[in-house]
Amino acid sequence: MKLAFRMCKLYPELMDELKRTLKAMDIDYYKPAVKCVRSRILNGKLK
Fold first, then answer.
1. Other Cβ atoms within 10 Å of 11 Cβ, number
2. How big is the CA angle at 20 (ends 34 and 13), to the nearest 5 degrees?
């Protein structure tokens, strides 16, 4: 997810697609670290 986010910084037109994909994830099956990165990307706190 972090690599995809970095790519989206270079190609801003991909950011909406990344956010739609992250929102569609069934988050119950992932570890807390993945949940944290997902929420930081969606909230705009990851730099």
1. 8
2. 110
What token pair was written down for 16?
């909406």
C-alpha 42: how far from chain center: 6
Low-confidence ranges of the chain (pLDDT < 50): none
What's the pLDDT at 1? 94
pTM: 0.84
Task: Write out the two tokens for 31.
Answer: 């570890």
